[in-house]
Amino acid sequence: MDLATLIGLIGTLGAILTAIMMGGSFGIFVNGPGVMIVVGGTLMVVLMKYPLTVAAHAMKAAAKAFLNKSQTPKELIEKCVELSSIARKEGVLGLEQVEIENEFLKRGVMLVVDGSDQDFVRKMLSNDINLTIERHEEGQSIFKAIADVAPAMGMIGTLIGLVQMMSNMSDPKALGPAMAVALLTTLYGAVIANAIASPIADKLALRSKQERMNKSLILEGIAAIQAGLNPRVIEDLLKTYLPVNQREFAKEEKSEAA
Amino acid sequence: MDLATLIGLIGTLGAILTAIMMGGSFGIFVNGPGVMIVVGGTLMVVLMKYPLTVAAHAMKAAAKAFLNKSQTPKELIEKCVELSSIARKEGVLGLEQVEIENEFLKRGVMLVVDGSDQDFVRKMLSNDINLTIERHEEGQSIFKAIADVAPAMGMIGTLIGLVQMMSNMSDPKALGPAMAVALLTTLYGAVIANAIASPIADKLALRSKQERMNKSLILEGIAAIQAGLNPRVIEDLLKTYLPVNQREFAKEEKSEAA
Amino acid sequence: MDLATLIGLIGTLGAILTAIMMGGSFGIFVNGPGVMIVVGGTLMVVLMKYPLTVAAHAMKAAAKAFLNKSQTPKELIEKCVELSSIARKEGVLGLEQVEIENEFLKRGVMLVVDGSDQDFVRKMLSNDINLTIERHEEGQSIFKAIADVAPAMGMIGTLIGLVQMMSNMSDPKALGPAMAVALLTTLYGAVIANAIASPIADKLALRSKQERMNKSLILEGIAAIQAGLNPRVIEDLLKTYLPVNQREFAKEEKSEAA
Amino acid sequence: MDLATLIGLIGTLGAILTAIMMGGSFGIFVNGPGVMIVVGGTLMVVLMKYPLTVAAHAMKAAAKAFLNKSQTPKELIEKCVELSSIARKEGVLGLEQVEIENEFLKRGVMLVVDGSDQDFVRKMLSNDINLTIERHEEGQSIFKAIADVAPAMGMIGTLIGLVQMMSNMSDPKALGPAMAVALLTTLYGAVIANAIASPIADKLALRSKQERMNKSLILEGIAAIQAGLNPRVIEDLLKTYLPVNQREFAKEEKSEAA
Amino acid sequence: MDLATLIGLIGTLGAILTAIMMGGSFGIFVNGPGVMIVVGGTLMVVLMKYPLTVAAHAMKAAAKAFLNKSQTPKELIEKCVELSSIARKEGVLGLEQVEIENEFLKRGVMLVVDGSDQDFVRKMLSNDINLTIERHEEGQSIFKAIADVAPAMGMIGTLIGLVQMMSNMSDPKALGPAMAVALLTTLYGAVIANAIASPIADKLALRSKQERMNKSLILEGIAAIQAGLNPRVIEDLLKTYLPVNQREFAKEEKSEAA
Questions:
Q1: Cα–Cα distance measured from residue A132 to residue A212, given in angstroms and rounded to the nearest whole number
Q2: What is the 8-class DSSP label of residue A196?
């Protein structure tokens, strides 16, 4: 998991726990049947929604998305410009020897080296982008499903607790604690949804978006290399993937090259 | 129904029942008029929304989606590559003898064997995909309708119970149990929506998505076979429908073939 | 109104009424000012949203959608195949004499008979489809507006009742009945929205979708006839509008014809 | 403001006021700080969302949309047919003398008279349609913002009232009236949102849609005139913008002309 | 921050504070653990959703959007017309000397001066527009995330408070104040979401929309200049980006020029 997410997760749960501790005993916030109905029920419902293999793959993809650091667009642009220079000097076959870290760029370059025609390369790489996105969306959607189901299970738990409490009101003193226990499942559901599952789904969506942008950049770079464009033109073209204030690095290199 | 859905459904209802049992008697959670207004009312409203024939077809399609195991993309790719090899050696007429399990692939191959031109084949198969999806969506939408209507019916039942309770508050001791009964319909609605109807709708959506991807893969495969592409090129093309880590099988075969 | 909708409507209201009756007197559920604020207020707000002429047209369209039974795709396909056979034998002018029940198909055939060119025919019919859909959507949107506004008016009524009740709490015994009355408007709003307006809007949407599919089928049929395609090819093309299990009728006819 | 909207607005507020009056004194529904927080707070938040100039322009556009009666599609079709007859007889220059009420049609005709080429005319008019729609959407979005913000401000007011009430519960008799006052802001927010702002936003959306349809009709008419199409063909083409039952007028004229 | 937003923010918070003050002591609305769980928890969850660098960039972009006054479309049209006159007289190379305030227009002109072909210029500038919008959307989405998370954190805080209160109801007199404290976090969440974060997100969206419209205008202007269109034609073309009543300025200039 990347650091920001980890810090955020610990910080969020910390804020909630501190608020609980400041109000007194922690014990009153623990309730076995409540945990079972919210956590167990949510997992069971998610199992109904997604087959185990999909869930396992999605989890793996999510873990990878958190652990692997994706390259910055800047690094990718520099790599593309370097590749285009080589292709210009030695022809596309010269690209075969170049060491390329990024998997997707590597596959694109291999297609070019194999002499595939431009439409085929574009189609292959576009397909690849679309399918990657679909798999990423599966990962997000599982966490979104948890964020949807947990509060519903919490509400079901609270309703069960309220019905039990109100069916038997012989001891008025027991009402308060019984109501407290009934509310706990709603609290569990809200915490699971808002403090854990929903932020992870959003972080995965952001990662997916960054990777899609990176891959679009690479796709355009590969197309430009295959079209035999001038490295400087390619650089100008790809620079538009950067915020205006980060485009300068390119100009400096250009003036050095000049 | 597929195993994961069945386990999930039993698990969810089990978690809810266990929570009920731990709190005491099961009897207080059963209420005739409540069941009638939520279950009966929901079915009646769904009948208003969908004519019987649509509902029956949709149910059949849903049942089929649960029971039939769809082929994996990997199997389909292998089949397409095999077909393209045959078409290369014996011409497309040679495909007539090949045994094909998948209905949609079979229909596509028949169209090719009949000598239909490429645009016609693509149009026929695309139409087929779109209409299949529309029919699948009908099935999902019925379960989504149940998930929408049940909580509303639950709320209507609770409002009726509250009005009855508060119109006659002569016996304060009866208030609690009356309130408990009033809340039961909200509980029924929440359980039907969140633990049964909504997960089934989502599972159907997932199945529909998988089938659409399979059919897109087949459509592309058929087009490639008809265009007379090299089996290895077809394999590369269709491999993009697989996650990166599952693409290796192809390479191994390739090296064996080499 | 079609039978399923009528049965559903009666069944839903019946379920609600039965639940009310089982709890005691029906009288406590009737409240004049409550009916006025929810029913009257909802109608007035809908009048603000839609001018009278639009509302009247939409109601007429809705009534027609309920009363007229649309033809099945199967019947339309058979008709298109029949027309294409005639057009093949006698030329498109031969179509002038054929009796055609379906208004839209008739208009399309007339355009073909008049010798309009293909793009013009397609444009005319496409425009027609889009505008029909727009008018249908108006009808749906009025019922959707009722389903949106009624619960809001119900909430406003309940808030008014609660404010009145709590401003004057001198007689504790009157609290219960006053609260019951306040809740009634919320109940009215929920019933109007969920048991009447929303299902009707959804049924209209379904009808509109069926009609759009029928018209798309006809549009494709007309285009195929005008292009002079073989009746058997047209049949194959249009059969994709049917579920797989309904396509057989065509094959039987084919074998008989052979 | 058009009559239906005005009647609807008065009727809605009338229904609410009547319900208030039937329950007793009107005075208990007036609360200074409550009005301030809901009305003042809502206006301030809307000011944060939209700069003053945008708000002023939007209000002006909204007022104009209510006051100006837009022409019916029927009138526009008749005008386009008339213009095409003139253009046929006297050439497009003959259109310069024709008096045209509709601003947008006039601008289109002027472009044709100036001899602009077809693509340019279409681009100019399409741009115009898109920008008009964008400005209309601004007007709607301000009323939608009011409908979103007012209930939130009402809830904030109620929460403030509840906190104040519960912090000081020394006099149990004051609880009821204090609670009543706290609920008032929620009532204000609900009335502003559901009975005023939301219906006006919807009416503006409807107007905008009608104007867009009118302008699309004109755009198609201008293109047809410029292409030198036969007036009868143009009539047939534009008639598709009318509901089927309103198309007859054209046929009558045709038979008279014949 | 622009003046309207600042006034709106102060006004909104002022209305809320006044309502609090009129009801008595301000002190009862301050609660340390409540602030911690809502403000702290919200920031932590947002940190989970967005990495720090994204958040920092987005904040900077937001600040810039508030501080920089974007040029009016009118000014941009005048500039484009001026540039096209120069390009007509001195050729596109003459544009190199012209001083251009707007960054995006400047970049476009530089591309034209460099002799890039039309498709390349359009692609570069379109890319630029899309990426600017994406970065703006990141800024909005952070404020939208705050508006989503704060009420959820408020609800979690209230649930914690209620559970603590009801677990220990030995002193009935403490119930009111404890309930008041529990409600405070809901109030904090509502104020942060509705009075601060949500309006800022909407204002940023409006700014982004204005900038996109400006950039579209410039893109069209650049394309027209490169195509060598007549300055008057360019003016007519770009005028469609203005509301009808603002288009007159151009005509006056035209008649002066005549």
A1: 8
A2: I
Q: D119: which 2 tokens?
A: 């693509």
| Interface membership of C44 toward D (CB under 8 Å) | yes
Of the candidates D159, B73, D45, which has an alpha carbon nearest to the alpha carbon of residue E7?
A: D45
ipTM above 0.85 for this complex = no
3-state helix/strand/coil string of chain B:
CCHHHHHHHHHHHHHHHHHHHHCCCCHHHCCHHHHHHHHHHHHHHHHHHCCHHHHHHHHHHHHHHHHCCCCCHHHHHHHHHHHHHHHHHHCHHHHHHCCCCCHHHHHHHHHHHCCCCHHHHHHHHHHHHHHHHHHHHHHHHHHHHHHHHHHHHHHHHHHHHHHHHHHCCCCHHHHHHHHHHHHHHHHHHHHHHHHHHHHHHHHHHHHHHHHHHHHHHHHHHHHHHHCCCCHHHHHHHHHCCCCHHHCHHHHHHHHHHC
Return the percentage of chain D with pLDDT > 70, whole number: 90
E163 vs A176: CA distance, rounded Å: 9
On chain B, the residues whose CB falls within 8 A of the CB of A152 are 190, 193-194
Using a CB-CB cut-off of 8 Å, the residues of chain D touching C152 are: 190, 193-194
What tokens appear for B218 in the block?
């087949």
Give the pLDDT confidence of D222-256 residue by residue, as tens digits.
998 888 888 888 888 888 777 666 665 544 444 44
Nearest CA to C4 out of B140, B46, D121 is that of B46
pLDDT confidence tier of residue B256, bands split at 50, 70 and 90 = very low
B180 to A163: CB separation less than 8 angstroms, yes or no:
yes
Query: Å from D91 to nearest chain C CA?
Result: 24
**Token pair 């167990």 in the structure block, residue:** A40
Give the tens place of pLDDT for each residue, E73-85. 888 898 899 999 9
Closest listed residue to residue D31, CA positions, set D249, D216, D182? D182
Q: B9 and A48 in contact by Cβ < 8 A?
A: yes
Q: Would you call E187 and D145 a contact, using CB atoms and an 8 Å cutoff?
A: no
- B16 touching A (Cβ < 8 Å): yes
In this complex, is the C-beta atom of D258 within 8 Å of any C-beta atom belonging to chain C? no
Tell me the shortest Cα–Cα distance from D236 to chain E, in angstroms: 30
Of chain B, the end-to-end C-alpha distance in Å amounts to 43
pLDDT of residue C246: 67
> Are chains E and A in contact at 3+ CB pairs closer than 8 Å?
yes
* Whole-prediction pTM: 0.85
CA–chain centroid gap for A40, Å, is: 24
Q: State whether A128 and B15 contact (CB < 8 Å).
A: no
CB contact under 8 A, D45 and E179: no
Q: In the structure, how many helices (H) and strands (E) does chain D have?
A: 11, 0
- In one-letter notation, the amino acid at residue A12 is T
The gap from C-alpha B75 to its chain's centroid, in whole angstroms, comes to 21
Cα torsion angle, A150, A156, A158, A164, sign: negative
Which chains reach chain B with 3 or more Cβ–Cβ distances below 8 angstroms?
A, C
Using alpha carbons only, what angle is made at residue B103 by residues B101 and B104, rounded to the nearest 5 degrees? 125
pLDDT in the model for residue B68: 65
Q: Model confidence over D116-171: pLDDT tens digits?
A: 888 888 888 888 888 778 778 888 888 999 999 999 999 999 999 999 888 877 77
Instruction: Read off the pLDDT of residues A89-99 as tens digits, 9 standing for 90 and up.
Output: 888 888 888 88
Residue D76 · residue D214 · CB < 8 Å: yes
Contacts of C177 in chain D (CB under 8 A): none
Is B163 in Cβ contact with C184 (below 8 Å)? yes
Structure tokens at C180: 């019951």
pLDDT digits (tens, 9 = 90+) for A10-50: 999 998 998 888 877 788 898 888 999 999 999 999 988 88
The alpha-carbon gap from D49 to the nearest alpha carbon of chain C, in Å, equals 24
Give the Cα separation of D215 and C32 in Å (integer): 47
